[in-house]
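Preliminary data (for renewal application), glutathione complex.
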Amino acid sequence: MTLVLHGHPFSSYTQKVLIALYENATPFTWRLLDGPPAFEELASLWPIRLMPVLVDDDTPIAESSIIIEHLALNCPGSVRLIPADPLMALKVRSLDRFFDLYVMTPMQKIVGDRLRQAGERDPKGVADARARLEVAYGWLEKELAGCVWAAGEHFTMADCAAAPSLFYADWAHPIDARLANVRSYRARLLIRPSFARAVEEARPFRKFFPLGAPDRD
Ligand SMILES: N[C@@H](CCC(=O)N[C@@H](CS)C(=O)NCC(=O)O)C(=O)O
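Predicted structure:
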């Protein structure tokens, strides 16, 4: 089995998969998406053209959650990112959806809007995204009470999704100081070795963050 990851270290969804790979020390090689030839190759693998895509031997696998599920089935390691218990697995998948849809998506809307030309901006969409993040942070504050990781005491796919989404969301729309559970969870994610490594590998690209990366983390 040879694994090739098409992605970029600064991409939040690439980081989500990197965390899964690093958690279990799964060997892979990078196909860095750093120019037109690499993006053409990505389009030939996955016409939707979103990163990351993992190629397992000759089979391309798209969508970060499906990639993590694929890794859990085909090269499982000591860190079980999808719990064996079906009900716990359902909880993990539900939290994974929460982070992608209600944290990552509004964060991407705020960041992406800044990359648009002045006349193409969408202030209402950005305001809605900020409102959605506020609600998501508030829901998470209650959900995380008493938890070490998103789904409880074990690190799972939900935490792979949470780490880059909360990392960048806090840059785009800061998490209020009163949301102590969310802030301490984000801090725990930042010192988890798999995510700490992904953050370090992405550090040289911070200058490209369109809102201006804060001088922290
Ligand atoms: N649902 C996809 C989302 C992937 C995604 O949004 N990737 C972003 C980078 S973090 C991307 O490729 N953006 C490039 C673009 O929008 O053209 C997943 O889970 O993998």
